Amino acid sequence: MVADIPIRGSVVIPAHELRWKFSRSSGPGGQSVNTTDSRVELLFDVARSPSLPPIWRRRAVDILGDRLVDGVLRISAQEERSQYLNRRAAEQRLGEVLREATAPPPRPRRPTKPTRGSVERRLSGKKRRSETKRSRRISPDD
């Protein structure tokens, strides 16, 4: 029933590294609300997972630091009334969170200088504006 969760490329989180907890969901649900454990919590030990490459693991721990408790990431789902659908939602969410957390950082921005033409256009525009304002002045000779 539980499948491996693909992250990126050939990296996959195997099902045996996932821990599941089930509890009663809050909110309305009809007659079966008090008997069905449809709320799902998915726990994944990011800090000690052998399936993540070491650099990805460090990156994920740094980025997810606030969400981790002792290196364990907890994803919960209770939107659906079915435990099965909530399990699928939690698996999907875990995959998305790990894909974002393990993504390589963006390349650093290289500062650029304005082109000579853009500098000249900016200065000529300032000169035109200055002339316009100077021509509007009331001279003290009047």
Topology:
Elements lengths: L4 E4 L2 E3 L4 E6 L15 E7 L8 H10 L4 E2 L2 E6 L5 H19 L14 H21 L6
Antiparallel strand pairs: 1-2, 3-4, 4-6, 5-6
Task: Summarize the structure in words.
It is a single chain. By secondary structure, this protein is of the alpha+beta class. Helix content is 35%, strand content 20%. The protein is built from three helices and six strands. It has helices at residues 54-63, 83-101, 116-136, and strands spanning 5-8, 11-13, 18-23, 39-45, 68-69, 72-77. The strands form two sheets. A four-stranded antiparallel β-sheet has the order 3-4-6-5. It has a two-stranded antiparallel ribbon with strand order 1-2. The protein is elongated and about 95 Å long.
Structural class: alpha+beta
Strand order, largest beta sheet: 3-4-6-5
**Beta-strand content estimate:** 15-25%
Largest beta-sheet details: 4 strands, antiparallel
Helix content: 25-40%
Our count of helices gives 3
Report the mean per-residue pLDDT as an integer: 88
Query: Which word captures the global form?
Result: elongated
Task: Provide the succession of SSEs.
Answer: EEEEHEEHH
Oligomeric assembly: single chain
The low-pLDDT segments are: none
- CATH architectural name of the domain at 5-101: 2-Layer Sandwich
Over the alpha carbons, how many angstroms does the gyration radius reach?
29 Å
- Overall number of strands: 6
**Cα distance spanning the termini:** 93 Å
CATH C-level class of the domain at 5-101: Alpha Beta
- CATH topology category name of the domain at 5-101: Double Stranded RNA Binding Domain
